[in-house]
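Reviewers of the previous submission asked for a worked example of the structure-prediction workflow described in the proposal, so we include one complete record here. The input consisted solely of the amino acid sequence. No template or homolog information was supplied to the procedure at any stage.
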Amino acid sequence: MDTVTEHEMAIAMALQGGIGVIHYNNSIEEQAREVSRVKRFKNGFITEPKTLSPEDTVHEIDRIKVGIWISGVPVTENGGMHSRLLGIVTNRDIDFLEDRSLKLRDVMTTDLVVANEKCSLEEANKILKESKKAKLPIVNDKHELIALMSRSDLLKNRDFPLSTKDRKRSFSVLLLSEPDPGIRTDWTL
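From that input alone, the workflow returned the following structure tokens.
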């Protein structure tokens, strides 16, 4: 089953084993944003998580969360991937903070459970389950952030075993584009 949709319906359809088609009535940027929202909804290893530096503020997390649901942001030395992991800021760290100008270095959790990049998805899932944490950073031998795993993804895998996923284990979604005006579209059989 398929239908023309936006990200909310595409996610709902993928959870049930269908596939949504993002329509072309949006700009290219809006189409890309819709596809990104579907793809980020469920992952095995999240290879491009949002990251920040210890000098960023809680307000920056608030800004990132507009339009995307995330519950934790890794904090690295330079604020990017493949940089030394220093901590993580979760909703539990900031939910009740009134001063949103606080630096992340002052609110982040630094006592982390991590997995090495050499572990399999199954091994990482086991570590995440046993640690009872919401996020599991995946690091290399230099303790640089390589990826992230989310407990909510484990729950979705359990609760929706027939969901439609691509080979990277994120939801499948199609993008509908307008044909070239020079291409004949009125084929008759």
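The CA atoms of residues 123 and 189 lie 53 Å apart. We consider this example representative of the routine output the project will generate in years two and three.
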